[in-house]
Amino acid sequence: MKSAAIIGAQWGDEGKGKITDALCESFDVVVRYQGGNNAGHTIKSGGKTTILHIIPSGILHKNCVSVIAHGPVFDPENFINELKNLENNVQVTPNNLKISGQCPVITGHHKLIDSLRETQGPVKIGTTGRGIGPSYEDKVSRKSIKLQDLLNKDILYKKIKNQLTEKSVLFQNLYQVEFPSVEEETEKLFNLGKIIAPFICDTFNYLDKAGQQGKKILYEGAQGILLDMDYGTYPFVTSSNPSVGGIYCGAGVPYNQIDEVLGIAKAYTTRVGEGPFPTELDDEDGNKLQDVGQEFGATTGRRRRCGWLDLPLLKYAIKVSNLTSLAMTKLDVLTLDHFEKIKVCYAYKYKNETVDCAYPGINLNEVKPLYKELPAFSGTFDASRTNKELEQYIEVIEKETGIPVSMMSCGPDREQLVYRRPF
Ligand code: IMP
Fold first, then answer.
1. For the CA of 299, the nearest atom of ligand 1
2. What does the alpha-carbon distance between residue 18 and residue 414 come to, in Å, rounded to a whole number?
3. What is the pLDDT of residues 48-106, one digit of tens each?
4. Active-site positions?
């Protein structure tokens, strides 16, 4: 296998960081292609917990070069903080981290407008407040400040001024708040640019050459397919394409050059922020999933909404991204220690019909989930031993989705990953 992609198959927080981290051993380059520091990839290893937001998980591996391609939006201030947090863990240099000069920059204004909309706007999305959506908006309206613009003060000044022409009217008249002036913002970003400059690279060229040299490339998705701008539960989505399509426009990889598209799914379902969630539990089981699974957002610390595994949504996600296999995570949460029985939603009742795939034409607010009840996993749950009930659960998932479960994660550590087929 030359290249693979790791894609969240639900609403994000599926444990992608952990799976990427485990697979990094076999790859030379790890690439982020969309999203921004709204992502929170948690990696536990050797008693240490590392949370990464924009830096690819490959950074923790000596053999890997980490690349932030042109697709993600980039917050210079937040990046410097992330670098500082990594200082005691790993040496980050321009040799092991390369950032595209073409990334759209997140400015102070983007963050301000994100939080104003969430607190005062007519529709609350439940964003991470990191300015991701507003920065992508400026990209689409052809007003982005690209990372390389930070190196030229005149260009930077002009571009910030251009972005602020309309936004200042919103700040002054609609929201009536103070906001950083063009001069302040230029000075701040120009100074941050000096620190970031050594990492800036033509990542298209770098990845093109790496491919030609036969290097193995891993694309690390952030968020999940159901938060995809085009395929997700719009408008309750993020502003990029976490699905496989995002790789082609966000990293410059030629179509058809990804051998394995590994979908990561939790053994149950979680969601942060607003939006429909058919299997959401508002009961004791939901609280248990939340407590046992420690379901708090890595980026915002928010409590995640919880529910049983939703196979109609998973089947849809598989179609959207042509997933070739699944990695199921957090299986250790569904043991007899916590639950007598577990449930899995295999179809919905919708307008008097039974539907088994959550096609976009279906209003997820109006479906009634149909459940199969299964035994919780018994005994001391040990990843290295086969577990009858666990195998039964995996069988149901494979049969319903039609693709294999190639990995199972049964606890937070690297050692608790079971490979059901070689990678
Ligand atoms: P934004 O990406 O901050 O604009 O937020 C849009 C939606 O995506 C909100 O529902 C967020 O909670 C959700 N979201 C963004 N990033 C993540 C993530 O890394 N994990 C899970 N949900 C996320």
1. 19
2. 7
3. 888 899 999 999 999 999 999 999 999 999 999 999 999 988 999 999 999 999 999 99
4. 13, 41
For helices 153-169 and 108-120, give the axis angle rounded to 10 degrees.
20
Residue whose CB lies within 8 A of the most ligand 1 atoms, among 10, 20, 238, 240, for a mutation test: 238
What lines the ligand 1 site, CB under 6 Å? Answer: 11-13, 38-40, 125-128, 130, 132-133, 222-223, 227, 236, 238-239, 272-273, 299
* Torsion 91-40-310-220 (CA) sign: negative
For ligand 1, the distance from its centroid to the CA atom of residue 124, given in whole angstroms, is 12
Rounded to the nearest 10 degrees, the angle between the axes of helix 182-196 and helix 76-86 is 40
Among candidates 335, 261, 343, which has minimal Cα distance to 9?
261
Report the amino acid identity of residue 167: K
Name which residue sits closest to atom 11 of ligand 1, judged by CA: 127
What CA–CA distance (Å, rounded) separates 223 from 368?
Answer: 26
163 three-class SS:
helix
| Non-local CB neighbours of 422 within 8 Å, separated by 6+ positions | none
**Rounded Cα distance, 231 and 121, in Å:** 24
Best mutation site among 42, 116, 128 for ligand 1 pocket (most ligand atoms within 8 Å of CB)? 128
**Gap between the Cα atoms of 66 and 56, Å rounded:** 6
Structure tokens at 150: 């930070």
Residues 221-268 pLDDT 10s = 999 999 999 999 999 999 999 999 999 999 998 777 899 999 999 999
DSSP 377: B
Tell how far the Cα of 386 is from the centroid of ligand 1, in angstroms: 35
Q: How far is CA 170 from the centre of its chain?
A: 30
Question: DSSP characters for 58-81?
Answer: GGG-TT-EEEE-SSS-B-HHHHHH
How far does the centroid of ligand 1 lie from the alpha carbon of residue 350, in Å? 28
